[in-house]
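Figure 3 (text version): structure tokens given as input.
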């Protein structure tokens, strides 16, 4: 099998796995279904990925490498602070609505396989908050926003956009909502969250 053919097959497996993981979640996904939908036999699937865990980690790596550069471009841009927050919320929520299986997986791996999870924090593509943190400090000094520790501000927006995806089963149950309403509310949060933060930081 040629190198190009190998790459095409692996890419088809990863794209198929993303679809199945999105539909069923990590626990309910079966390797046989991924093989069937990718148009290959299970033995060939195991040639590329020995286990479902290994395949899921490869899917996570692929998704991380797609999303992290977008976050970096936002954090390191020269646009105004609140424009960055709006863009970050929009990009993050849009990405997670397409890949809802990722956040529960991250939480699971932080507890069970922290070495794998933390390996992404050492990646050259990991989001770097240095520039946006300096921008927050500069806007505080200029009187544009209220005093706040930059890490508190970043922690707030990260938490507000990420938590609903990490706890979506719990949230749907507590608030008695179906999946359609959940998606609608998440899309509304693309502007709702930055609006809340902007209003809270007005001097």
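Below: residues designed for each position.
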């Amino acid at each position: 099998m040629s190198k190009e053919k190998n790459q095409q097959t692996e890419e088809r497996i990863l794209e198929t796995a993303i679809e199945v993981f999105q539909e069923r979640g990590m626990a309910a996904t079966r390797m046989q279904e991924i093989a069937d939908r990718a148009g290959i036999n299970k033995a060939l699937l195991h040639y590329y990925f020995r286990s479902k865990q290994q395949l899921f980690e490869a899917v996570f790596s692929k998704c991380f490498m797609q999303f992290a550069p977008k976050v970096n471009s936002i954090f390191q841009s020269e646009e105004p602070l609140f424009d960055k927050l709006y863009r970050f919320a929009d990009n993050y929520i849009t990405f997670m609505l397409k890949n809802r299986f990722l956040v529960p997986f991250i939480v699971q791996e932080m507890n069970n396989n922290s070495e794998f999870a933390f390996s992404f924090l050492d990646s050259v593509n990991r989001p770097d908050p240095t520039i946006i943190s300096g921008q927050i400090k500069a806007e505080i000094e200029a009187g544009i926003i209220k005093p706040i520790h930059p890490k508190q501000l970043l922690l707030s927006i990260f938490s507000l956009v990420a938590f609903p995806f990490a706890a979506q089963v719990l949230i749907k149950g507590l608030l008695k909502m179906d999946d359609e309403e959940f998606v609608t509310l998440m899309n509304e949060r693309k502007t709702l969250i930055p609006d809340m933060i902007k209003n809270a930081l007005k001097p």
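The chain has a mean pLDDT of 89.
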